[in-house]
Structure formats: structure tokens, C-alpha cells
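Practice problem: predict the structure.
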Amino acid sequence: MENVNLRSGYEIPVVGLGTWDLRGRTCQRAVKEALALGYTHIDTAWYYENQRSIGEALRGVDVDRSALFITSKVWMSHLRYDDALKQCEENVRDLQTEYVDLMLIHWPNDSVPVKETLRAFQETVEAGLAKSIGVSNFSVDQMEEAVAVSDVPISVNQISYSPGSEQRDVLAWCMEKDVVVTSYSPLAKRRILNDPMLAKIGSCLGRSVAQIALKWLIQKGMVVIPKSSSKNHLAENLDVMNWELGQEEMDQIDAMGE
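Answer:
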């Protein structure tokens, strides 16, 4: 699996498993199957209500913790300093691990100064509970403020990004500032899977529509975290590294967002 360098000095795997809406045994099975296939990057959040299930899954597999990259998030209702500290600790505890590799502000909250939350995140890093920090769903203006007030590098902005539904201004700003963009819902909650143009490109390359979309995002410099509980789809989503889209195909997919 290829990795991307973070501003914190660590690395993040290019493909991860998104776990939104996966809970209980379904979540545990998906995580175990993903790890068996070669995934090393698991994305979760307090709001997903599945961190305990993921923790149980991790306990049930023979994988070195240092080989994994686990992302968690603090919900927008818990961004006050004390609340953020408590939820960071709760996230790590529920995952039954000593630390997470990346802790994110899940959504911005205009009623709480971002500096206050990031002060709690800094303490979380200093305590060894998180290696890197970042944000999710931040606009360019919100990113500029976060980077300006944080004493710890903002390494990631996780945003919704898929063919035909882009945030080009955010991506361009983040790339200029060396902030990694992670695309969640990279398949637009499966809405793009019947797109005829993507299907045509996939047919020519012997690839699925999902693989075409994920590869397009990766070649644009993003990390992707598609969700799946199907072993076949998990394997398919992971098989996007050893082939390339040509410039013509990239341009065609770019045009979907114009």
C-alpha cells in the first residue's frame, strides 16, 4: 500500500476503510476482512457509534498495532476544551488502543473558537494519545484560521469529494499548503455507480466504476476511504494501485464537475 507524507512527519495509507453506518457484528466482520485483505487504514468517529466494535475486531486479529493507521473524530457538540479532551480520551479507550494515528474535528462549530479545540488536540498529542491531528468538512476560510492558530501541524482535511461533486477550491488550497485531503463518500454513496461515462472508461480498462472513481481521486492527490461490508467490494476497492488512468480519462471525469 502506498502512503502519503503528513505535515506531522508521519504517513497515511492512500486507501482506507470507511466505517460510517457499520455497527456491531457487521462492522467487526468488515474490519477483520479488510485487515486480512491488506488494509492498514481504518477510519471511524465517535459519532459513528462503532468504535467499541472496531476495538473488539482489532483485538481479535494478529496485526501489529504499529502497522495500522487509525483515524477518529471529535463531534461538533464536544469542541469546548474540556469536552474535546474527554472525547479524545473516550475515542482511544473505546478503540482499545494506546493511541490513534489521526484525530480530527469532525465538523466545524462556529460557536466554539477553533483555537480552543486545537489546544485540547495539542494536549492530546503531547499526552501520546494521537500522533497527528486534522479537521473534516472545513472550508478554505476555516482552514486558514485553523492553520494560523494551531501550534501542532494540521495534517488532514477530510471532505466529501467524488466525480461530479467536487470542492476544487478546498483541494487546491490544501495541496498548496501540504495538507492532505481525504475523500469520504468517494463513490457519492453509490450514486455514481451507474454513470455511463464512468462505466465506459471502466469497460475499456477492465475495471469497475468504483475503481475508476477511486483511482481518479488518488491520481488527483487524495486519500480515499470507501465504505464496504462486502468482501468482494473490499478487495475491489483495494485493487487501485498498480494501474493508471490516462490524461484523457482524467479530463473526462474532471468535466463531470464543470
